[in-house]
Amino acid sequence: MPETVINGFRMYYETHGSGHPLVMIHGGLGGGEGCAQMMEHHADQLAASFQVIAYDRRAAGRSETPTDGYSIPNFTQDLHALLEHLGIERAHVLGTSAGGPIALQFALDHPDMTQSLLLINTMTYVQESEREVRQRELDEIKRVLAERGKEEAVEAGLNSRWPGMRESQPDQFAKLKGINLEQFDGIVRTIQAYLNIGDSLESRLHELTMPTMIVHGDADSRINIMCGLQLHQGIAGSEFHVIPGAEHGLLTIEATRTRGLIEEFLAETAAQLRI
């Protein structure tokens, strides 16, 4: 799959199938596998009806970790530049988890390019009390990073975010600790970008008029279902679907059911818009 300089950094991206474009923005705050797991579960099936586009965001997966450009508006510009590179003028835009704010910002900045909006287990990151806690955690990581280096900063972040994980989930702790340290500075800057969102998205939800679907699990322990409900209440005419008993990560742990909702919504949207 291609790797091309897009908006100033080397971006890894994939395209599958043909038909109306569906761009999928993965979650996570950097590092990890990028879009790989999402595409493993959905690329072949969705490519039967759509041109499926996915990419690894800055400091994630197989993409480069540039020194700057870490803000929600510029993450949105990354997507816009990719679609321009591919010659795509209009697409269905799906964002999952941390990909959701990028999808929201893109739809607000480029409503003419957004055929529909799909928001999977995500939020606007408006909760001030939660941001304050996470900012304190990030400030501690930055302090340890400056004083003792990346490996110590990673461990400090894990111990702060998930106290006791080393003892209770040693395999998971080791996996998280084994992130690519070359991406660590970008991960820190990405986390800060989300903490800087404030109410900039929440206050503009009423501007979104394209067909919108929101899907959330009612057992989501990472992004509470109330966050999905707030999106639904803020976006007029949006659909809201709850998957009972489902945790975070619907595109993988509830792949078949979530994909069914995606396909049904896009089919209905196509019929309404006659595309």
Protein topology:
Elements: E1 3-6, E2 9-16, E3 20-25, H1 36-46, E4 50-55, H2 72-85, E5 91-96, H3 99-109, E6 114-120, H4 128-148, H5 150-161, H6 165-168, H7 170-177, H8 184-195, E7 212-217, H9 225-234, E8 239-243, H10 250-253, H11 255-273
Parallel strand pairs: 3-4, 3-5, 5-6, 6-7, 7-8
Antiparallel strand pairs: 1-2, 2-4
Task: Give the tags.
8 strands; alpha/beta; 275 residues; globular; 46% helix; eight-stranded mixed beta sheet; 11 helices
Task: Give structural notes.
Helix content is 46%, strand content 17%. By secondary structure, it is of the alpha/beta class. Strands 1-2-4-3-5-6-7-8 form an eight-stranded mixed β-sheet, with helices on both faces. α3 links the parallel β5 and β6. α2 packs across α3, α4 packs antiparallel against α5 (150-161) and α4 (128-148) runs antiparallel to α8 (184-195). The radius of gyration is 18 Å and the shape is globular.
Provide a short characterization of the protein structure:
With 275 residues, the chain is an alpha/beta fold. 46% of the residues lie in helices and 17% in strands.
Topology pattern, helix = H, strand = E: EEEHEHEHEHHHHHEHEHH
Number of discrete helical segments: 11
Give the rounded overall mean pLDDT.
Answer: 93
Low-confidence stretches: none
Q: Characterize the biggest β-sheet.
A: 8 strands, mixed
Q: Per the principal axes of the C-alpha atoms, what is the gross shape?
A: globular
**Helix content estimate:** 40-55%
- What order do the strands of the largest sheet run in, or round the barrel if closed? 1-2-4-3-5-6-7-8
- Give the termini distance in whole angstroms: 28 Å
What is the number of beta strands? Answer: 8
For the CA atoms, what is the radius of gyration?
18 Å
